[in-house]
Design a protein that fits this description.
mainly alpha; 2 domains; 5 helices; 3 strands; binds iron/sulfur cluster
């Protein structure tokens, strides 16, 4: 949602957001469906789309989970990159892929 150029959320007043966590925070709107020609907050859109790209993260680039992890929650990564936080963005299955596959298989076969 957050990083996709084709995904957005619509608030109750028609306001457009890029992330569930932004919903209701008017400062984080990127437009309004009642005025579809007007977009704003381009800096936020660019940060979401490009600034938090996990393919630019040196740790992710050398991680074998990258293709399936997809870099974790974009907002947690955004907080790390732009707000100095230290959220763990890694998939909870990192280091436990065997357990995950076994559980997945069990669920499918039950
Ligand atoms: S598991 Fe962690 S280091 Fe690996 S790709 Fe996902 S976020 Fe990046």
């Amino acid at each position: 949602m957050t990083r996709s150029p084709y995904s957005m959320l619509i608030g109750s007043q028609g306001e457009i957001y890029k992330c569930y966590e932004d919903l209701g925070n008017k400062e984080l709107t990127v437009g309004n469906i009642n005025d579809p020609e007007v977009w704003h907050n381009y800096e936020l859109i660019a940060k979401y789309a490009v600034g938090i790209d996990h393919y630019n993260d040196p740790e992710c680039r050398k991680c074998s989970y990258l293709p399936i992890c997809r870099g974790g929650c974009p907002i947690r990564r955004f907080e790390n990159v732009y707000k100095g936080k230290h959220n763990d963005c890694c998939t909870p299955f990192k280091g436990r892929i065997k357990d995950y596959i076994e559980l997945y298989s069990k669920i499918l076969n039950d």
